[in-house]
Amino acid sequence: MRILVTGGAGFIGSEYVRRRLASDPAARITVLDALTYSGVEANLAPVADHPGYTFVRGDICDPDVVGQVMAGQDAVVHFAAESHVDRSIHGAGPFVRTNVTGTQVLLDAAHRHRVGRFVHVSTDEVYGSIGEGSWTEQSPLAPNSPYSASKAGSDLLALTYHRTHGLDVVVTRCTNNYGPHQFPEKVVPLFITRLLDGKKVPLYGDGRNVRDWLHVSDHCRGIDLVLHGGRAGEVYHIGGGTELTNHKLTGLLLDAVGADWYRVEHVADRKGHDLRYSLDDGKIREQLGYAPLTDLAEGLATTVAWYRAHRAWWEPLRERAGL
Ligand code: NAD
Asked: For the residues 288-298, what does the mean pLDDT come to?
């Protein structure tokens, strides 16, 4: 199977590419990535010599480049996005451009080239915030940040290409990921790298916001299950089953690094901060046999160990992003 992976130099996309090529010598993957501030080509160094791997630096909003790389592909797994909520609050333009227009350019090209399957990687944030219970795949979308609104736009647009054009689209909506190679602006690596440097970590508001955490390897396994077994035109939740307040997550990270609560600084809450996300992921568990395999405590411990051992990876990125 020839797969076009967009955003393959980012955190989740690179895990997906490394994992896919490592497990299948016959795999054929073309990565299309613009190498924005969060794209790191070195994330793909372990597979650079795989005979089925091709890297193309290019923008998903550019119809010429997208048309060229789309020709001959059997499937698309679409990760490329502007992905950081805080950045979207400071400026929504790049989010609308990449997440909405870029997705439209990809969908048009996939339709034109009769690509057999298009997996659109979306997020639980498209639903907004939920006080109690969990969202199902039928719950209405009610995003609250420019990031989640742009993801909701692309998510719905992808589904319309199935209904309108018959393109074989499947959408995954996943909870918060953590693991190695995550850009150090996101909360888990931000806290780990600051703690490793002896600095304080900024905890938003009272820390009672709840997120469901999933190891990136489990997310990528879920995507593969949907790529191969999902039904066209449908949405699949990929959950972690480990809901935690940010306060509790902070405590686990402090323990994992061996630091105390005096290293935590309470800062003004994020504007429009969603209180809680929660997915019902019964559908993918029942229909496709998905279950997360990485226990949170073990996953956080290996993640901390990875950041400890890879200072040369994250220090220049932190500098590049002015963190
Ligand atoms: P990331 O920021 O680490 O990676 C994004 C990648 O996309 C980078 O390599 C970047 O260079 C590339 N990119 C950005 N704009 C581009 C453009 N215009 N053209 C081509 N490439 C471009 O993000 P991530 O955390 O790996 O997230 C990947 C996807 O998963 C996103 O669609 C995100 O919405 C979704 N998602 C993320 C999470 C999470 O917890 N990180 C959870 C659910 C869903």
From this structure: 96
